[in-house]
Structures are given as C-alpha cells and as structure tokens.
Amino acid sequence: MDFNAIVVSGGRSSRLGGTPKAGLSNGRQTLLGSTLAAVDSAAQTVVVGPETLPVPAHVILTREDPPFSGPAAALAAGLAALPADSAAWTLLLAVDMPAVARAVEVLVDAAAAADEATVGFAGVVEGSFQPLAGIYRTEALRRAFSGETENKSVRRLLGALDYETLELPAGSTDDVDTWDSARSLGFSQPTF
C-alpha cells in the first residue's frame, strides 16, 4: 500500500538544553535515521525541521513558519509540501520514538485493510493517545489542518476527523523527552 510519511523534527528540545533530538545517537544511528528507516517504504517522506537536518535526497525537508510554532503548524507545513497527487494515506510521526518501526507496521497494515469509510487510525499505547503516531487519509488531514495552526493542539485538530483508535505495541512510542529518557532508550550521544 502506498502511503506518505510526515516526520516532525523541529521542536526546541528545551528539556534537553536545546540539543536537537533528531541528532541523538545510539552509536549506530540517530533518532532521525531510525525514524526514516521506519518509513523507508513510504512513497513520499517529508521531514519538518531546520534546514540543517541531514536528510537523504529523496526526502522533502521543510519548515513551519514561523519556526517553533508547534507540531500542528509543522504538520500543516508537511502536508503543504506533499505533492497534490500524493498517496491516499499519510503517516504522522514524531522524530523522538526510537522503536516506532513496530508502530508503523501496525498502522500501515490497518490502513491497508481499511474500508472506504475509514478516515484514519490514531495510535494508543496502554491507554495513552499518541497524536504523532497515526495514519490518516491525506485529504482528511489537509482539511483538518487547512486553517490557523500556529500553537494549536494537534489533538484538537485531529478531533475534527472521525478516526478510529488502534492499540500499538507496548514501547513502540516511548519517546525522548529528557536526558534520562534518552539514556534509558539508548540515545544519549549528540551528533548534530
């Protein structure tokens, strides 16, 4: 099944003292590298973050305007960067989940099996809603994120969609928020 992927990678990382999460490494790959590997089968991938991020040539790199205006604005920028004739489904991910490949597989499989009426699947892990681990119909996302998005809640904008929740594998959305969580997930070496 063809799908797009939008990876949000442009936050301030204030709890990491400003160290970009995307550049944290486990000695083998960065968080950005592990996230891009998880979506390597995407028809089109957009990373939303600083223009200095090292992305492969086939990945579109864009930035929300103004920078640091929140994940909803980042998703709107990512959607705007997708070609008009892009895949029918778009996966939304944050860059800071090193085990997200397991979630991606479950989400893409659910979308592939969905009927025409299904708008999308929002990830849930152990009862916790994961707004940046979901897959939705691209046109539905374009409508939901077409208005003002600066400093808006992703959850509130997604609330306009009649999506289903989908239980994701435990640990697949564990994220890096602090140096302690980075170390516990094995990503503590900043590379850029």
3D structure, described in words:
The chain has 192 residues and is α/β, with parallel strands linked by helices. It has a single domain, classed as Spore Coat Polysaccharide Biosynthesis Protein SpsA, Chain A (Alpha-Beta Complex). The chain contains six helices and nine strands; from the N terminus they run E-E-H-E-E-H-E-H-E-E-H-H-E-H-E. The strands form two sheets. Strands 4-3-1-5-7-6-8 form a seven-stranded mixed β-sheet, sandwiched between helices. Helix 1 runs parallel beside helix 3. The radius of gyration is 15 Å and the shape is globular.
For the largest beta-sheet, the strand count, sense and barrel status come to:
7 strands, mixed
What strand order characterises the main sheet?
A: 4-3-1-5-7-6-8
String of helices and strands: EEHEEHEHEEHHEHE
Low-confidence stretches: none
- The gyration radius over C-alpha positions equals 15 Å
Number of strands: 9
Strand-residue proportion: 15-25%
- Just name the CATH architecture: Alpha-Beta Complex
Oligomer: single chain
* SS class: alpha/beta
What is the top-level CATH class? Alpha Beta
Count of individual domains: 1
CATH level 4 superfamily = Spore Coat Polysaccharide Biosynthesis Protein SpsA, Chain A
Helix content: 25-40%
CATH topology: Spore Coat Polysaccharide Biosynthesis Protein SpsA, Chain A
Silhouette? globular
Mean pLDDT across the residues is: 97
